[in-house]
Design goal:
7-stranded mixed sheet
Length: about 120
């Protein structure tokens, strides 16, 4: 299983970024792909995820209404559109795939939001 994340960067508060996670290496339809983040001194938290099996999505309360997760199944890529970014969104963002109950992680990508 390989997860390749990209799209991080440095922006001003109120601006947008889009993260991409290119996923490969499994054939099961029973999986979910999502994004976690970890800020300095804080625990890793789940930000958003999408289930391939039923299309259900999850968002952390802190990002509801600002972030949107979507998938392009033909490209095996999951996107996280992040709008109205806030300094509190500053963190390393990690792509995660849960395939039949087993977690896989990609390398993190830094998102920095300045006020």
């Amino acid at each position: 299983v390989q997860l390749q994340a990209s799209g991080g960067g440095s922006v001003q508060a109120g601006e947008s970024l889009r993260l991409s996670c290119a996923a490969s290496g499994w054939t099961s339809d029973d999986y979910a792909v999502g994004w976690f983040r970890q800020a300095p001194g804080k625990e890793r938290e789940r930000v958003a995820c999408i289930s391939q099996r039923d299309g259900n999505t999850f968002y952390a309360d802190s990002v509801k209404g600002r972030f949107t997760i979507s998938s392009d199944n033909d490209a095996n890529t999951v996107y996280l559109q992040m709008d109205s970014l806030e300094p509190e969104d500053t963190a390393v963002y990690y792509c995660n795939a849960n395939v039949r109950g087993k977690d896989y992680w990609g390398k993190g990508t830094q998102v920095t939001v300045s006020s």
